[in-house]
Specification:
single chain, mainly alpha, DNA polymerase, domain 1
Length: about 120
């Protein structure tokens, strides 16, 4: 059963809708990113944020911390989507400066490279 999503309700609602429309006009699907932005919207509503000026670096940090991510790649995706939204809002003159101050997590290589010696490389 698919859950029905309520329309965006936070102070970022119009910006999120316009941002998604912009990205989709560029030919991107942006479905996973939309889910992240819905999480952000719902979080802002739960925190009773009623004005855009109340979206602070500390609030965004608490949002990121409220979504536990064990892998750096997953955390960096969450952070990247929120960062792109706020960067777009700055470009559109909705905000003077992005309130997002969080840094991405370092990722390590998933596979350790292996160098074959001459005898094992010849099969």
């Amino acid at each position: 059963m698919k859950s029905t999503w309520v329309d965006y309700q936070s102070p970022l609602a119009d910006a999120i809708k316009n941002f998604l429309a912009y990205k989709r006009a560029l030919g991107r699907h942006y479905n996973n990113e939309e889910r992240v932005l819905r999480l952000l919207d719902r979080y802002l509503v739960e925190q009773q944020i009623s004005h855009l000026s109340n979206v602070t670096p500390a609030l965004l940090e608490s949002f990121l911390n409220s979504r536990p991510r064990t892998r750096p790649r997953s955390y960096n995706h969450l952070l990247g989507v929120v960062k792109r939204l706020f960067d777009w809002m700055v470009i559109q003159d909705i905000l003077n400066r992005s309130p997002l101050r969080a840094k991405s997590r370092r990722t390590t290589a998933q596979r350790i490279p292996y160098l074959f010696d001459a005898s094992s490389a010849i099969v």
